Amino acid sequence: MGTIDSFEQLSQRFLHHFAINKRYPKTASYLFTVVQREHESLRDYVQRFSEAVLEVPHVNPELLASIMQQNLRRGRFHESIAGKPPATLDELLVRAEKYIHIEETSDVRAMTPSKRRVEEESRSKRSLNDRHRDRGCGPALDTTRYTPLNAPCAEILAVAERQGIVQWPLQMRKNPKRMKSDKYCLFHKDRGHSREECLHLKDEIEKLIRRGYLKEYVDRNNRPGEGNSRPPSRAT
User: Fold this and answer.
1) Among the listed residues 151, 146, 114, 123, the one whose alpha carbon sits nearest the alpha carbon of residue 5
2) Which strand (E) or helix (H) includes residue 52?
3) How confident is the model at residue 56 (pLDDT cuts 50, 70, 90)?
4) Where is this region: Disordered (predicted)?
5) Of 105, 80, 74, 104, nearest to 92 (Cα)?
6) How do residues 147-198 score in pLDDT, each as one tens digit?
7) How far is CA 159 from CA 124, 164, 194, in A?
8) Beta-bridge mates of residue 218
């Protein structure tokens, strides 16, 4: 498994628990064995737990949150959720993001000056990419309509991820207004809109279909042009 460089990439694999996956016979009890190791970072643990979720079909999101909470090593994040347990997986991931940032900031401060400079330059480059992404600078589709689908976007995305054909979005720039929203998108790993409303998710699936992938998810019962319209892009 390759290295994950941004927090939203750590959690996007949780999309798989919405997909139908009959290849793996493991049950939810298997996830209780995926505990955080003594020197394992929170980022690495969330990545490893998300990989384990892929092997267990049809797990309730609330149960996933409870299992992950129990498996965490004792520390500041564990104390936080023990005092106020998250009600859903989405809430758990939002709170984990904060503590991953705290943990990694502390690690950077402990680095030698040269290593710290490299890490800060890397973060600065990611921040610049975020600003371009937030301003709508990504490539636009050459149509105003989506191909009609015969399955939910989350299920299709899970299949595409297993095939290794998904291009995941860059982390969005922090926005206090979005943090107040009760909507959450696992594709972007951020608040402000739901997965069902995510245009970038719909765009990614549309691009894959046009490249010849995921043809089994095209709704052949709809005539061409009957897909959902794409709202005009807006700069933020």
Assistant:
1) 123
2) helix 42-53
3) confident
4) 106-143
5) 80
6) 999 988 878 878 888 888 888 777 666 666 666 566 777 677 666 676 567 8
7) 33, 9, 20
8) 149
